[in-house]
Design goal:
Length: 133
Amino acid sequence: MAAGSDVVAGFYTATQARDAGAILALLHPEFEARTAPGLPFGAGGVFHGPEETLARVWGAVFAEYDTAPYAETWHETDDGLVVVTGHYRGTARSTGRPYEAEFVHLWRVTGGRITWLHQYTDTARWHEALTPA
């Protein structure tokens, strides 16, 4: 893997471990996240900065789901864009229902830190897990 992919791989390791400090250490101070509109609990949208994204996206998700992203395919372009596909797997805490949602993540790494994320995921799967059986 190239350097950008190594940094991104560290993000997946940190999120699977729910290590907020490690996540923050990987993010550039001017980090921007564009997450899938329709994600539950206000986690979808545009977020600026590591702390805002940690609180409003990953914090919101981890509070409501026992979940993590699992990368399956990796592609790095000549200009440094890292494209990762995979699945989120987990359980909604309120219902105990498991879910699996496909994702595509587009990452930009600059100077050894993540500066940008654009996330696509099947938000319907996230919502289905919140519906009692």
